[in-house]
Amino acid sequence: MRTAAIIVAAGRGTRAGGDLPKQWQVVAGKRVIDWTVDAFLNAAGIDSIVVVLHPDDLDRFAPTDRVEVTTGGATRVASVLSGLEFLDGSDVTHVLIHDVARMCTQSAYIVYTVATLETRTAVAPALPVTDALWHGADGTVSGTQDRTGLYRAQTPQGFVFKDILAAHRAYQGDAADDVEVARAAGIEVTIIDGDENNLKITTPEDFVRAEKILQGQMDIRTGSGYDVHRFGPGDHVVLCGVKLPHDRGLQGHSDADVGMHALTDAIYGAMAAGDIGRHFPPSDPQWKGAESHIFLRHASDLATEKGFKISSMDVTLICEHPKIGHHADAMRQTLSDITSVEIDRISVKATTSERLGFTGRGEGIAAQAIATLVRS
Ligand code: MG
User: Fold this and answer.
1) pLDDT digits (tens, 9 = 90+) for 232-288
2) pTM for the whole structure
3) Which fold has domain 3-217?
4) Residues 6+ positions from 40 with CB-CB distance below 8 Å
5) Distance 255 CA to ligand 1 centre (A)
6) Ligand 1 centroid – CA 315 distance (Å)
């Protein structure tokens, strides 16, 4: 089974308000189209993704290794056919077809849809209608409608690739969705459980609801790190990547950057991914004297790999000397350069311990750090 996803995003609809079609508007920090594409990118079992765009929008969306782009037609049916024709000749055996405006679809739901498709000719999510239904005319109820057997259809709808391609090639006229096209070709479509949160952005109010749903789905993690290095002979220390002249140096198997070590451990901690010692064992000679930016970059790359964005980082250096204050911004900039996190999300501050304890006696420097990671 090789499964592709076609995301239909060629519409020009402005019913949702704003100057741009809804797929290009920003909700909870990301464009609608990016939320939708990312959900499929994060879903195991999706081998490729085709985004169908309006020809005027091609410069708004950059294709990548896993996300290809093609142009759509004047109607939804024409756009879906365009996406299917794009995949013709590939090794794809199954396809999910999804409306870009359903931006709250969760990756786990996509995985479930693919799994149900393994044993069926076609699957489509839907919710039974539970409200009473009326006919109305001129603001007055003109009749009632039995809701028995009625469903609200959603996407992604899943099909055997060659069957839905043939169905679309043969279909004439417009259709609300691909189930209509499939049924016209005699394909049996199994109804699977829909999700009330899988809303389709249609009105301005839907953006507000989508934002609430997405925020509720966010995976927010916090990690802490703590490190100490003792003073020894030397003429400088390196703290958060910045070299400061000092009458002693810090001892350690690497460059002894106590601040960067604490921060790196905080990032690992947020992901429950161990600590520096696990990823860079001190017993391994290749890390002797290694510069700490290697550790920090590894932790931040691992976060990206796992789908996390570093939302904030806060380092506190604890020592009497050297004085940190006017170097703090250079340290923040260095940490920003290494992690690609914006500088206004990075804090470096310092405190003394009132001459108490080992830091107070000047025997070493301690550092603690907190990192917050967000995955949506
Ligand atoms: Mg250390």
Assistant:
1) 999 999 999 999 999 999 998 778 999 999 999 999 999 999 999 999 988 888 887
2) 0.68
3) Spore Coat Polysaccharide Biosynthesis Protein SpsA; Chain A (3.90.550)
4) 5, 7, 46, 49, 96, 98, 107, 110
5) 9
6) 14
